[in-house]
């Protein structure tokens, strides 16, 4: 009897554990496009198109290798519209001896899978997702007994475990674990940013784009320009482009923002990594090799590796260790409704408009825009954590809950009260002015906290500190900020707090 092997849209790796030990002549691979997954949040049309096209190409490649593939397209007759329904239908029709799956990237989907054995009456095996460099169990062991979980220590531990960027004596290459201080340059407006690689559009992608246009046109986001690669070969081509064209300057401009520049020197590999077209191990090895051969400097390579070997693994470990309770946290009791400006509504805040525009047009914005523009504003304004989480999950092509939730709730919103980060990433307009050229030409003045041209980020930054003094005032990493606030005369403090009330009124009216 055959084995039914399920491959989800974010499991498009031929080496995935669900396919290990498979018998190509008898076993059946199941891939399904289902309405429930495309709509449980209103995913960006480019995200849906990317996943459907990548799934269809993956299925075609496996068929060409001799696999038997059951591919259920979105509008295929009989498509039940859900994972539950499609696995049940396949089991009823194929009568497999068992079902084999790799554990999914979302707790919500794991709960479904855990119910299948009882519901379907066949053994269902859930295997570890071993594409990651740190297993759930190893993360739990690392975290156990530590009072605080900090990225820096986790990252050093993982580098030593995997022998990444180490000297012959086992110390960090270049004598430092971290080159962050070299990676905070603003980008000059005249900076030449190389144009990205273009991918030829296959007939499969064209068909998927038409389908998505027809079925998901009400979702926020533009379908064109669709610039994503949809096969492993195309993802590798993008990666090779990054290694030669962008990695050397990745570190230097990692935190920079420039009006009109969507990608700067970022890799945009998260979309490919998270879907399984690229594997983290191979990227870390290739990036290290780039440094060892002199193709890229150490600050860039260390900075890049820290994102993949450090942050990516860290947020995943934290997610699985803390779910499902983690999703319910709201340390700062943030409950203000998400404003229309996050969905493209008008705003005079030039930085926010730019981040949302990139998001709408590309299903992408880079890390500093996500953290310090849309995330920072949501933090300072106390936007509802669930609404903000759902927004991030919907609008980015790389978003799956295991990576989106800790980044949104923990990193951007401090909603977990300090599990992920030691202090909120709160910043005023002055930070944005230093790291971008957005403020030139903005209706607001980043230096002003009160008055006609008060920058909402600056007003709300001080108001945020004042509002949460009880919860955050004793955080040693905020002592400098609170000392500054306390130095303000009472009249200035009152004026800022009154300005904040006006900012919130205008936010609600849609005139901010
Ligand atoms: P680069 O800047 O080129 O970085 C290289 C790689 O490092 C990325 O591809 C990614 O795989 C990894 N990486 C970098 N930072 C992080 C991080 N904080 N957590 C995990 N991996 C990281 N990343 C996602 O993959 N999916 C998400 O849904 C997601 N949501 C986010 C939400 C918020 C509020 C914030 C602040 C960050 C979020 N991130 C998310 C992390 C980060 O912003 C993206 O990984 C990055 O912008 C992707 O673009 P890139 O591939 O060009 O990254
Ligand atoms: C995000 C997404 C979308 C839009 N569509 C599908 C789909 O049709 N089929 C599928 O297998 N997965 C899809 N996904 C990803 C899932 O919602 C979910 O994030 C992952 O399966 C978790 O591992
Ligand atoms: Fe953003 Fe304020 Fe600068 Fe305008 S002045 S771009 S709102 S930080």
How would you describe this protein?
This protein has 512 residues and is mainly α. It is 49% helix and 4% strand. It has helices at residues 35-39, 45-64, 83-94, 107-120, 136-143, 151-162, 203-215, 232-245, 247-250, 270-275, 280-292, 298-322, 350-362, 367-381, 385-395, 401-412, 429-435, 456-467, 469-472, 479-487, 490-509; strands at 3-6, 28-32, 68-72, 98-102, 124-127. α3 (83-94) packs parallel to α4, α14 (367-381) crosses α18 and α15 (385-395) crosses α16. The longest helix is centred in the middle third of the chain and has 25 residues, at 298-322. The protein binds flavin-adenine dinucleotide, ligand DLZ and iron/sulfur cluster (SF4).
Question: Which features characterize this protein?
Answer:
5 strands; binds ligand DLZ; 512 residues; globular; DNA Cyclobutane Dipyrimidine Photolyase, subunit A, domain 3; binds flavin-adenine dinucleotide; five-stranded parallel β-sheet; binds iron/sulfur cluster; mainly alpha; 4% strand; Rossmann fold; Serine Threonine Protein Phosphatase 5, Tetratricopeptide repeat
Layout of secondary structure:
Blueprint: E1 3-6, E2 28-32, H1 35-39, H2 45-64, E3 68-72, H3 83-94, E4 98-102, H4 107-120, E5 124-127, H5 136-143, H6 151-162, H7 203-215, H8 232-245, H9 247-250, H10 270-275, H11 280-292, H12 298-322, H13 350-362, H14 367-381, H15 385-395, H16 401-412, H17 429-435, H18 456-467, H19 469-472, H20 479-487, H21 490-509
Parallel strand pairs: 1-2, 1-4, 2-3, 4-5
Helix pairs in contact: 2-7, 3-4, 6-12, 11-12, 12-16, 13-14, 14-16, 14-18, 15-16, 18-21
Residues 349-351, 429, 432-433, 438-439, 442, 444, 446, 455-457 line the site of iron/sulfur cluster (SF4).
């Amino acid at each position: 009897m055959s084995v039914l092997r399920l491959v989800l849209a974010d499991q498009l790796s031929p080496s995935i554990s669900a396919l290990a030990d498979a018998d190509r002549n008898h076993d059946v691979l199941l891939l399904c496009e289902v309405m429930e997954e495309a709509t449980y949040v209103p995913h960006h049309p480019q995200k849906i198109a990317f996943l459907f096209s990548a799934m269809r190409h993956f299925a075609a490649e496996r068929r060409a290798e001799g696999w038997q593939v059951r591919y259920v397209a979105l509008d295929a007759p009989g498509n039940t519209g859900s994972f539950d329904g499609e696995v049940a239908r396949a089991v009823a029709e194929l009568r497999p001896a068992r079902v084999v799956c790799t554990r999914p990237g979302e707790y919500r989907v794991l709960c479904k899978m855990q119910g299948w054995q009882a519901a379907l009456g066949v053994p269902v095996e859930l295997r570890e997702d071993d594409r990651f460099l740190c297993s759930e169990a190893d993360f739990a062991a690392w975290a156990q007994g530590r009072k605080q979980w900090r990225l820096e220590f986790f990252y050093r531990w993982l580098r030593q475990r995997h022998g990444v960027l180490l000297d012959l004596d086992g110390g960090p290459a270049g004598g430092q674990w971290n080159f962050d201080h070299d990676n905070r340059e603003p980008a000059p407006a005249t900076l030449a940013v190389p144009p990205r690689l273009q991918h030829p559009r296959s007939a499969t992608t064209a068909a998927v784009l038409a389908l998505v246009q027809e079925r998901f046109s009400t979702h926020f986001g533009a379908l064109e320009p669709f610039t994503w690669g949809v096969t492993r070969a195309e993802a590798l081509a993008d990666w090779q482009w990054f290694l030669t064209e962008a990695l050397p300057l990745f570190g230097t401009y990692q935190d920079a923002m420039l009006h009109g520049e969507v990608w700067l020197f970022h890799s945009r590999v998260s979309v490919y990594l998270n879907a399984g077209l690229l594997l983290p191990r191979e990227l870390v090895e290739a990036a290290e090799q780039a440094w060892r051969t002199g193709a890229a400097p150490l600050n860039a390579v260390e900075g890049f590796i820290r994102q993949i070997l450090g942050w990516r693994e860290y947020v995943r470990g934290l997610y699985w260790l803390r779910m499902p309770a983690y999703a319910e946290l709201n340390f700062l009791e943030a409950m203000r409704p998400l404003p229309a400006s996050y969905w493209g509504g008008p705003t005079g805040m030039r930085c926010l408009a730019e981040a949302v525009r990139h998001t709408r047009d590309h299903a992408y914005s880079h890390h500093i825009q996500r953290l310090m523009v849309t995330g920072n504003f949501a933090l300072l304004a106390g936007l509802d954590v669930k609404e903000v989480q759902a927004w991030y999950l919907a609008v980015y092509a790389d978003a799956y809950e295991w990576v989106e939730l800790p980044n949104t709730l923990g990193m951007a919103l401090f909603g977990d009260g300090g599990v992920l980060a030691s202090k909120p990433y709160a910043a005023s307009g002055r930070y944005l002015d230093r790291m971008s050229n957005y403020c030139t030409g903005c209706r607001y003045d980043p230096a002003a906290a009160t008055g006609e041209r008060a920058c909402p980020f600056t007003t709300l930054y001080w108001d945020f500190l004042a509002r949460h003094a009880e919860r955050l005032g004793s955080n040693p990493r905020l002592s400098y900020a609170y000392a500054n606030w306390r130095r303000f005369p009472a009249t200035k403090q009152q004026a800022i707090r009154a300005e904040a009330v006006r900012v919130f009124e205008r936010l609600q009216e849609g005139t901010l």
